Amino acid sequence: MGFINKIKFYYKSFLSFIVVSCSSVVGVFASIILSIVGKKYIAQWATARFFYYMYRTLLGIDVKVTSPQNLENLPCIFVSNHQSALDIMVIGKCFPRNCTVTAKKSLKYVPFLGWYMSLSGTLFLDRKNGASSIVAMKNSLFNVLVQKRALWVFPEGTRCSSEQLEMLPFKKGAFHMAQQGKIPIVPVVVSNTSNLFNKKHSIFNRGNIVVKVLDPISTQDLKSEEVADFANKVQEKMLKELKELGFCETSASIKRTDTTTTEAADDPPETDENEEVEEVSTSNTSPEPPVSEGTEATVVEDKVSQLKSASENSFSTVGNDDSDDTK
């Protein structure tokens, strides 16, 4: 069984590589064409959507978004937890128009992918050179403010491929940027994807990634000396939401939920014996159609007899059921 799982994992990984490669080629042409018509900054949005639909179709992974209206509050800086290659799926579904993603500088030199990212205006950050990264972020801040755009940042700085509901410590660059520009921070929390994609255990399942977009957090009154504490509070808030979201919905868990729901719908609800007595009494005391004076006494006598008979039968049934339960 383990061998079959590995075959499936490598097959799906190959499909994933094909999707990324095709999307990168599309992104190169989209960036060139959109730059010519003055729409360069929607190239990443268009390419992200193309990637999302291809990935969902071929690999059976979808993204469910809670509070998507918070994605439209531009200008802002989106901060999201960073876990695996499936983060591209999240960007593919959530990425708003006029938004730029940050990426490590080494990706700039990857064929097709790096070309597309460079042409579409990706903000590259050099992990080994903090000073150059600060300059790049300041230049990007100008574009965000003037053009009312957004920046998508992974403040952990690298992937947290944990099988636990946790995050790496946040780097503060994005928060300093937000404080200087007085633009809000919008946290984007992604459920733990280790049960959908896990290279260590050769896992590549179908299912749903659950994303919650939190309300914008203002930085209008934030002072520079308060940024570190502010970043920690944002991370605490995101970590709390991550623990509530938990892990992704795998295809197996979705099937179990659907089966349980179907069985619950098919099985009639159990009725308490006391409720049966009340129902019998109620049905027998429902209003009767009008009768003539000559037959009124007879109707009353019949009605009393029915009530006595129904009550005796019902209490007899209750007594039998109770005795069975004590065996």
Salient structural properties:
single chain; 327 residues; alpha/beta; Glycerol-3-phosphate (1)-acyltransferase; eight-stranded mixed sheet; two-stranded antiparallel sheet; 10 helices; 10 strands; 13% strand; disordered C terminus
Question: How does the SSE layout of this entry go?
Answer:
Blueprint: H1 2-36, H2 43-59, E1 61-66, E2 76-80, H3 87-94, E3 99-104, H4 113-119, E4 123-125, H5 130-146, E5 150-153, H6 173-181, E6 185-190, E7 197-198, E8 203-204, E9 207-213, H7 227-245, E10 249-250, H8 251-266, H9 273-284, H10 296-325
Helix pairs in contact: 1-2, 1-4, 2-3, 5-6, 9-10
Mind explaining what this structure looks like?
This protein is of the alpha/beta class. The protein has one domain: 3-Layer(aba) Sandwich (Glycerol-3-phosphate (1)-acyltransferase), CATH 3.40.1130. Helix content is 52%, strand content 13%. It has ten helices and ten strands. It has helices spanning 2-36, 43-59, 87-94, 113-119, 130-146, 173-181, 227-245, 251-266, 273-284, 296-325, and strands at residues 61-66, 76-80, 99-104, 123-125, 150-153, 185-190, 197-198, 203-204, 207-213, 249-250. Strands 1, 2, 3, 4, 5, 6, 9 and 10 form an eight-stranded mixed β-sheet that branches. A two-stranded antiparallel sheet has the order 7-8. Helix 5 packs parallel to helix 6. Mean pLDDT is 81; it is low at 273-301 and 310-327.
**Count of DSSP helices?**
10
Strand % is 5-15%
Spell the H/E element sequence.
Answer: HHEEHEHEHEHEEEEHEHHH
CATH class: Alpha Beta
CATH architecture assignment name: 3-Layer(aba) Sandwich
* Class of secondary structure makeup: alpha/beta
Given as residue ranges, the uncertain stretches (5+ residues, pLDDT < 50) are: 273-301, 310-327
Helical coverage, percent range: 40-55%
How many domains in all? 1
What is the straight-line distance between the termini? 46 Å
Overall shape: it is globular
